[in-house]
Amino acid sequence: MPDSPGILNFHCLPYKRIELICDGYIFQLFKKKVIRQACEYFKCRGMRFAVKKTDFSRMIRWDTGLVALFAVFGLVGSLSGQPEIKLPEYFGPPLELPLQLSGNFGELRSNHFHAGLDLRTGGVEGKKVFAAADGYVARILVSAYGYGKALYIQHPNGYMTVYAHLQRFNTAIEQYVRQEQYKRESFEVDLYPEPGMLRVKKGEVIALSGNTGGSAGPHLHFEIRDQGSERAINPMAFGYEVPDSKPPEFLQCMVYELDEDFLEIQRRILPVRRVSPSVYRLEKDTVSIPVLAGLGVETVDYKDGSGFKFGVYTLSLYVDGELIYKFSADAVRFDETRYLNAHIDYDYRVNSGRNVHQLFVLPGNRLDVYTAVVNRGLISLTPDSVVRVQIVASDISGNVSELAFWARGVSETINAQPQQRRGYFGFNDEIVIKDDHFVFLAESGTFYRPVRVNFSVKPLEPESLSAQVHFRDESVPFHKFATLRMKVNGSHPNASKFVLVNTVGNKRNVVTGTLEGDWYTAKIRSFGKYWVEADLKVPTIVPQNIPAGGNMRHQALVRFRISDDLSGIKSYRMEINGQWVLAEFDGKTGLLYHIFETPPAGRKMEIKVKVTDGVGNIGEYRTEIIR
């Protein structure tokens, strides 16, 4: 095929090698992983490319959206005695430390897939964080929750890198952020500097690693995004490597008996046994399964020299050699990530705390992480027919494990009886349930499969503001918010302080809403128990390091613990001598602190802290110190 500008050519070489030629670079590739890196490297530069192999009778062309070119060739291993030629890497290391992971891309988290890599920092804060490539700072986030302090860097190739849970930014960025914080009189800011205002070079120190926001320990959360920052890409596809020779492990297998509407009739756990490091079998070589069934597996992966548990990269299901389902953790869109609750066995997670990948796709699951699906991944058998089932798990380093068994269809499948189906709503139905004490409204697409809304009502008591409604199916996941309207009892002198309280098991959640007449309306995203309360308590403010007498000449900061027991903290403010000062808040510890900006001079200072909760209750604390 003749060369042409912007086209990447692959030529087949002896010994099943592939030669890749573009812009003066010549690479000889042997491994799947390196071919994937090659595709990503040239895709970064916005180039179209074509593929040619001598035993292919047709030309195959992709646009820049496809990364998984290596799957076409199925190459395994490398040519003995031949060195692997490494690609120049567009993105460099984001940390001064060797790459060690505590979390990988695509892990199953609460309500979302993990969108990046969690990079270890030796259990401490303050490690240098580098810009992975040239670019400019497109966004700066400072929050007491979530990503904490985070940087978003836009690169010329269209990708964006994200660095989260930072301790502090470099001098130029820190000065810009502080200026904006004082302008807004707010610690928490979400800033979008003008493009090119804060330029960075590859390898430049942009921040120090930390533990801010929702971080459970010091580390750097690192992401690579595309599509206008709305899609996270697996960073390991860009040439990052972690020593890994360990294949994924299968912990257990599930069989789900389903009906044609994906109503689960029963679930059965099949224990697995390992017969070699990468081969797993069931306790029985042949198992009976319903004639219409779905499968699920619990898996875990480890890396060399690490005790951390990781998620798998791909899961494939074969029936008699035919691929009917494949999950790949290549990328995930942020507007789709909550569909994780349709991907996993959500009920099992709620009740056991364990994650099971369902190897079938529920009707309400819109995830774009499945590269092969036949019959939504369901196994359909005739009575007494026998098929060979193979489940293959892989990590991104190419380590593969297999769980295989024979499955026999059973004729005595339990079918859902008509009375069992009564009261179910289709997953695409709009749901309206009215009662004297409440109204429940859910729009189409709120649930992933047909759902029955079971509820009971505990009647009003004289001192109560509302009845207590218990939606009993607490392990049914919501995708969208539903609306709940609760009838409120009697007069409403504290109507502005009303909240909707929800308990699921031992967890309590509180949401605020609006009162219209005698009905309090709020948005909810789970079943459980609901009732209306009035939040009349002000937030609590407790000094942590102010000594008796207030002498703080030897203190570098002043620190308070703030909390609210119902509607939660909405805002906070600290003043010294009547002027707003920058006070940082850590949402996970409740600590609010100000680092003094001037040296001690033995002066009196009046410190005032004001905290407002979700319904407007205000707590205040005043004191004088000497510094």
Rg measurement, Å = 29 Å
- Report the end-to-end length measured between terminal Cα atoms: 77 Å
Beta-strand share of residues: 35-45%
SS element count, helices: 6
Helical residue percent band: under 10%
Structural class: mainly beta
Whole-number mean pLDDT: 86
Taken from the alpha-carbon principal axes, the silhouette is globular
Unreliable residue stretches: 1-17, 21-32, 48-88, 414-419
Protein name: Peptidase M23-like protein
InterPro entries: Cell_wall_metabolism_enzyme (IPR050570), Dup_hybrid_motif (IPR011055), M23ase_b-sheet_dom (IPR016047)
Domain M23ase beta-sheet core: 113-181, 199-229
Pfam family, one: Peptidase_M23
Task: Chart the SSEs and their pairings.
Blueprint: E1 7-13, E2 17-22, E3 25-29, H1 32-44, E4 48-51, E5 60-62, H2 70-73, E6 101-103, E7 108-109, E8 112-113, E9 117-120, E10 128-130, E11 135-142, E12 149-154, E13 160-169, H3 171-184, E14 189-191, E15 199-200, E16 205-209, E17 219-226, E18 231-233, E19 249-258, E20 264-276, E21 279-290, E22 292-300, E23 314-319, E24 322-328, E25 331-333, H4 340-343, H5 346-352, E26 357-358, E27 370-373, E28 379-380, E29 386-394, E30 400-410, H6 418-421, E31 424-425, E32 431-434, E33 438-442, E34 451-452, E35 455-458, E36 468-471, E37 482-487, E38 498-504, E39 507-511, E40 514-516, E41 519-524, E42 528-534, E43 540-543, E44 557-563, E45 569-576, E46 579-580, E47 584-586, E48 591-595, E49 604-613, E50 618-626
Parallel strand pairs: 1-4, 21-30
Antiparallel strand pairs: 1-2, 2-3, 4-5, 6-9, 7-8, 9-17, 10-16, 11-12, 11-14, 11-15, 12-13, 13-16, 13-17, 17-18, 18-25, 19-20, 19-22, 20-21, 22-26, 22-28, 23-24, 23-29, 24-27, 29-30, 31-34, 32-33, 33-37, 35-36, 36-42, 37-41, 38-39, 38-42, 40-41, 43-44, 44-48, 45-46, 45-49, 47-48, 49-50
